Amino acid sequence: MRAFIALGILLGCFVVQADEHDHMYEVNEEVVLWMNTVGPYSNRQETYTYFSLPFCRGPKETIGHYHETMGESLLGVELDFSGLDIKFKTNMEKTLFCKKTLTNEEYKTFVYAIKNQYAYQMYLDDMPIWGMVGEVDTSENPPRYRIFTHKKLEIGTNGKQIVDVNLTTDGRVELRPNVELEFSYEVTWSKSDVKFHDRFDKYLDPSFFQHRIHWFSIFNSFMMVVFLVGLVWMILMRTLRRDYARYEKGENMDELDADLGDEYGWKQVHGDVFRPPALPMAFASLIGSGYHVFSVALITTVLAIVGEFYTERGSLLSAAIFVYAACAPINGYAGGSMYARFGGKQWIRQMLFGAFLLPSAVCGVAFLINFIAIYYHASRAIPFTVMLAVSAICLFVILPLTLVGTVLGRNMSGQGDYPCRVNAVPRPIPDKKWFVQPWLICLAGGILPFGSIFIEMYFIFTSFWAYKIYYVYGFMFLVVLILAIVTVCVTIVCSYFLLNAEDYRWRWTSFAAGASTAFYVYLYAVYYFLFKTKMYGLFQTAFYFGYMGLFASGLGLMCGTIGYVGTAKFVRKIYQEVNKFD
Predict the structure, then answer these.
(1) What pLDDT is attached to residue 558?
(2) Can you tell me whether residue 169 is helix, strand or coil?
(3) 380 CB contacts (<8 Å, ≥6 apart)?
């Protein structure tokens, strides 16, 4: 991991130096204004190409643009040359660049866009600019729809670099069939004291992300960690030591202990506690994928802290794809070694299952949503060439690296070294009280981990589904660490209760108890959709719930793996002393 972080720092320094050099202009040098996408303001993820609306292009010849990164393609970035003539540090008075008489069809298109509060995005020197298509006057019946036909760009410079861009829209014209629209623009330049590397600070919202509620949530989660660590410590230091002392002295239980016999039940299953779980191939593959997701989450978050990905289009997604591919050996090593310890023989099938478990889920959901995006002619429709590139990464990068990790895992950590011998015949599981049933333990296990992150989920959801740029990755890193600690503590307590009930099926239970956090996150996503957004329609609904399902699934894999790994160390620890008393 240190190598990845060091590489990220070096790449970040190189990119910053190259980026500053690429954004130098001379007086009267052309500055390109790119028109990106347009779509409902209530959902910035539903986007269409800017000229899908009947806007006019400027008089200059079209300049082609290609996607610089895979992240740009997957995020639906579709830059189109505006055709407007803009020169560095050269003011432009109000200039008419197009006249257009609306047909009845074009009139309906603009009315639909304004009625649904369509906003467009532009880029000038890689700085994003947002504007509204028009406005609705609801004071009259029927309402009147007006379109903005004039754009005024106010550009700030520091030396030879552009450091600030503001857009003002005006020229309100009421829409009606056969109306003639006159589109114009205006450019004014001024000096600014903003430094080049600080020019994106204007898009950040410290009052939102660094609100006292955000700090309070971190403190609240930290106190939860202290409480849970203390609870686990109490179990280890008091309850278990008392149990060890009783077994060591060989004392008989009194009547009170007989009534609470389940308190010492974990000792009775020492011959079955390390028995391989049901469906060992699926379990090992899930654990390997969870290791993979957790590694990607940590490394990508650290790189985001170092690299300020919000200054480059699609850079965060591109970095996540690169890190996911590079971390594939972790998946193979964890899953392959665990499957070998379970005594599995079909290691190639397990390797394929683990390598394609998460990519196949992502591709399946994206493929279905892509059909809807194509039907709506949205820019979110993934090009066929990008699909081929993703498939090539899976087949020629992720699969070979997973194979390498699997071979290493089977040979280096494939031998089971358990402190207790596994009985040949499984021990019958006695009837349990309702509150120690595995399904209830699993369902309750995700409540506290979700409670430690749900406020951070609000900030993440708002930045993804609304017009906020998430930049407080230091908060995210702390939240991930807190989530890991809380999940480990909760699953240890859940597994201890299960073992006390003489039920040795702790492996799947510990994984499911941690993974159930995803269930509550998805429920919160449903609440957020209903009460915090104004999304509607098939495309927005499918896009939201499809990708929120993928997010929750990845989080579930990560939390389930963290819970299982922590519980496995706990179980191994408490049974190391058991053989002394037999």
Answers:
(1) 97
(2) strand
(3) 45, 46, 47, 76, 369, 370, 373, 543
What is the identity of the amino acid at 109?
Answer: T
Q: What is the mean pLDDT of residues 17-43?
A: 83
**Could you count the other beta carbons within 10 Å of the beta carbon of residue 241?**
12
Calpha distance 541→426 (Å, rounded) = 48
Assess contact for 234 and 197: CB atoms under 8 A: no
Contacts of 551 (CB under 8 A, 6+ apart): 521, 525
What pLDDT shows up at residue 67?
64
The residues, any chain, with a CB within 8 Å of residue 167's CB and separated by 6 or more, are 122, 129, 130, 131, 151, 152, 153, 154
The residues that bridge with 236 in the sheet, in sequence order, are: none
Residue with tokens 């240190």, as numbered in its chain: 2
CA gap 4, 72 in Å, rounded: 23
Ramachandran class of 570: left when φ > 0, alpha when ψ lies in -120 to 50, beta otherwise:
alpha
Phi, psi angle pair for 532, to nearest 5°: -115, -10
Question: For residue range 296-341, what is the model confidence (pLDDT) as tens digits?
Answer: 999 999 999 988 788 888 889 999 999 999 999 999 999 999 999 9
Could you tell me the CA-to-CA distances from 483 to 76, 218, 292, 521 in Å, in that order?
32, 11, 17, 13
pLDDT for the residue 578: 59
Find out whether 132 and 148 touch, Cβ atoms under 8 Å. Answer: yes
The answer to whether the peptide bond before residue 128 is cis (omega within 30 degrees of 0) is: no
For the cut 70, the answer to whether the pLDDT of residue 556 exceeds it is yes
Q: Which tens digits make up the pLDDT trace of 115-173?
A: 999 999 999 999 999 999 999 988 888 899 999 999 999 999 999 999 999 999 999 99
> pLDDT digit string (tens) for 510-530?
999 999 999 999 999 999 999
- What's the half-sphere exposure (Cβ side, CA atoms, 13 Å) at 521? 28
Give the pLDDT confidence score for residue 147 in this predicted structure. 96
* 287 contacts 511 by C-beta, under 8 angstroms: yes
Structure tokens at 273: 């506690």
Least confident of 61-70, 377-386, 405-414: 61-70
Rounded Cα–Cα distance for residues 205 and 203 (Å): 7
Structure tokens at 564: 């299982």
- Mean pLDDT for 60-83 is 80
Q: In a 3-state reduction of DSSP, which class is residue 145?
A: strand
Q: Burial-class residue 34 by CB neighbours within 10 Å (0-12, 13-18, 19+).
A: buried
Give the DSSP letter string of 525-539.
HHHHHHHT----HHH
The CA–CA distances, whole Å, from 66 to 16, 21, 142, 151, 381 equal 21, 21, 44, 26, 16
Write a three-state SS string for 350-378: HHHHHHHHHHHHHHHHHHHHHHHHHHCCC
Lookup result for tokens 């292009």: 57
| Percentage of the residues of the chain whose pLDDT score is greater than 90 | 59
